Amino acid sequence: MFPPALLHTLTAVIETGSFERAAARLGVTPPAISQRMRALTEAAGGPVLARTRPAEATPLGLRLLRHARDVAALQADLAADLGATTGPRPVTVAINADSLETWAVDALAAAPGFRFDVVVLDQDHTADALRRGEVSAAVTSEARAIPGCVAHPLGALRYRATCTPAFRDRYFADGVTAAAIAAAPVLQFTSMDALQHRWLSSHAPGTPPPAHRIPAPGPFTEATRAGLGWGLNPEVAVAGDLASGRLVEMIADTPLDTPLHWQVSRAMAEVLSPLTRAMRRTARAALIRADG
Fold first, then answer.
1. Beta strands 89-95 and 114-120: pairing type?
2. What does the pLDDT average to over 20-24?
3. In the chain, what are the domains?
4. pTM (2 decimals)?
5. Residue 11 — φ and ψ, nearest 5°?
């Protein structure tokens, strides 16, 4: 069991980025912060802070940070039940960037009483952060409940493979062939982004195309509009572009639906139940049914 003071100090160091600012927040001296971090490192059996500026947690430190926030949230929930005045409950969640861009922020806003630390990861990898104990809940593509978690289906985020008419005329005048795909640059969010390759495997398998990496959903869509490459964009983000003809589908009526699920640590399920309700309610309005 880790002393609450050490966990509270770790949270302050990570959130403020330095021992000095953490000391000011907690009303102690920087040497006291250093002493507590050494004690936590010894208790944890390994380093909890990386040698970076601002201060960042190691993988072990991230696990302890999530535990610290869970403890704080549970304590705040208990205090509220007992009638005490409490601040927002801290919670760390993992959400994919396209969900944040299109619907998930509305869900977070519909769950007052929490202080969110959002980890942005591809939906195929958010579950790994949940398994490692780095987050308390996640929007993930995994339907099966992760051990120790409860899974809730949300619906599917629909994507369209899109490009500009000029890009289509330049690279795909003879259709979306394997040879054309091998020459036409594709847009990719990060190296973990497999959406484009999933679409290609169903409609135009062949040599992987050259890729531009644009690791932000807004600029990704703007890069598509600018003709930098073709890519899978959320349908809701490009519906107006498709209606106006500013963008066209690579192959008509070939959407790619990505089912999403909300997985929550069982230990935090009751505390996070207002957030779970908000995520499910918002997703019902924004996503399509996973079965089409």
1. parallel
2. 89
3. 157-257 (3.40.190.10)
4. 0.77
5. -60, -45
